[in-house]
Amino acid sequence: MQLLNKNLQQLVDIAQKPSRLGIGLMSGTSLDGLDIALCKFTGNGLETQFELLNFTTVPYGDKFKDEVRTVFSKKQVELEKVCLLNAYIGSYHAGLVLEALGNWKVAATDVDFIASHGQTIYHAPQRLHKQDGYPNATLQIGDGDHLAIKTGILTISDFRQKHVAAGGEGAPLALYGDVILGSKPGEDRILVNIGGISNLTYLPADGDSDRILCSDIGPGNTLIDTFSRKFFNKAFDEDSAIANSGTVNEALLNSLLKHPFFQETPPKTTGPELFNEEYVRAAQERSGTSHIAHEDVISTLSAFTAKAIADFTRAYMPKGAKMFVSGGGAKNPFVVDYLKKRLYRTEINDTESLGINPDAKEAILFALLGNEALAGEPLSVGNNLSVLLGKFSFAS
Ligand SMILES: Nc1ncnc2c1ncn2[C@@H]1O[C@H](COP(=O)(O)OP(=O)(O)OP(=O)(O)O)[C@@H](O)[C@H]1O
Ligand SMILES: CC(=O)N[C@H]1[C@@H]2OC[C@@H](O2)[C@@H](O)[C@@H]1O[C@H](C)C(=O)O
């Protein structure tokens, strides 16, 4: 007699496998493309053994980016567009997964699960929306059912909602993956990811769970990208070519750093809902720097990203901790050099030196969270919430 329906049986079977093949998908706030990481997991929790088998970033075309930007971090949008994009992105990502699997010569039937972050279109922690009676909120679109149906692979998605439901801000979720991938007994480590928004995980040498901290820091690439697009028609400041041709304007830099967010005690989260074009315009007006050269704006915004990380590190991190950077911002020489100058006593490398591909780190994180949703137990580490995240979408 069959006791379970087919879908529940599939969950039990996958959970009991000695090792699982999972795909992590991340589409971040930089809107540069879809990161796809094929990982093999053995075990779960802090004992997880993991291997990155394949990784690719599929760049988004301008048309897709423009479509998403019509609803991205905007207070008012066409609701119809949100509805259409929710289905479209799920299905589009599914197509990209199938294409990647084809390129890697891996059969979809050999993959146990997809763990999909989706596309954040609005992040609204209470600290940002400040509306009485409303809780923390965040919204990711690209529905998991479309991925499951189109690829035939069990899909876990919408990881941030339960974090919010359990009292968190829905981010950052990096902590769990960073603890597993990046901890080393006897070494104080700081893992900094410079994506659209930058965030950091502190991993103490003694492994003391109470001292582990994960928090957003401030803008990563988001402002550099916005103004590179606006002034120079470039998606980003490749190899800091623009920033290097300008000068940091100290008055503007100080004005940019004057926001209560930077004084708030971590953990905290933010997004382009705060750090956007209007934010920079207002800082320019306050500091009388509205007419400085466009190159100087890019240099100053790059310094802003780096100085926010340096200030946070000085304020909250113990001296002597080693820093490991990842995310697209780790490839911005101006940002990294500025950071090194501000933190001249800190040893700074990228996460490649830990054996973690700096571009793949966040996609791996979601694959890890998917593995936990299937085979793990709620874990209490640092300031993470002790809940298993993610919703299941079955292929039939
Ligand atoms: N060669 C380079 N020079 C300068 N900047 C670069 C370079 N390569 C990538 N970047 C920056 O990295 C960005 C992409 O970063 P990443 O892929 O980490 O973002 P993301 O996944 O959207 O991040 P998150 O979700 O963490 O906000 C680009 O938009 C660009 O600003
Ligand atoms: C709401 C949202 O999408 N936040 C992202 C964003 O990009 C970086 C930073 O802001 C971080 O808080 C988070 O992503 C990573 C993966 C996280 O949750 O750890």
UniProtKB/TrEMBL annotation:
Belongs to the anhydro-N-acetylmuramic acid kinase family. Signal peptide: none annotated. PANTHER family: ANHYDRO-N-ACETYLMURAMIC ACID KINASE. The keyword Nucleus does not apply. It is an enzyme of class 2 (transferase). It comes from Mucilaginibacter calamicampi. Its EC number is 2.7.1.170. The gene is anmK. One of its GO terms (molecular function) is kinase activity. InterPro entries: Anhydro_N_Ac-Mur_kinase, ATPase_NBD. SUPFAM superfamilies: Actin-like ATPase domain (SSF53067). Keywords: ATP-binding, Carbohydrate metabolism, Kinase, Nucleotide-binding, Transferase. Pathway: Amino-sugar metabolism; 1,6-anhydro-N-acetylmuramate degradation; Cell wall biogenesis; peptidoglycan recycling. It catalyses: 1,6-anhydro-N-acetyl-beta-muramate + ATP + H2O = N-acetyl-D-muramate 6-phosphate + ADP + H(+). HAMAP family: AnhMurNAc_kinase (MF_01270). ATP binds at G28, T29, S30, L31, D32, G33, L34, D35. Catalyzes the specific phosphorylation of 1,6-anhydro-N-acetylmuramic acid (anhMurNAc) with the simultaneous cleavage of the 1,6-anhydro ring, generating MurNAc-6-P. Is required for the utilization of anhMurNAc either imported from the medium or derived from its own cell wall murein, and thus plays a role in cell wall recycling. This is Anhydro-N-acetylmuramic acid kinase.
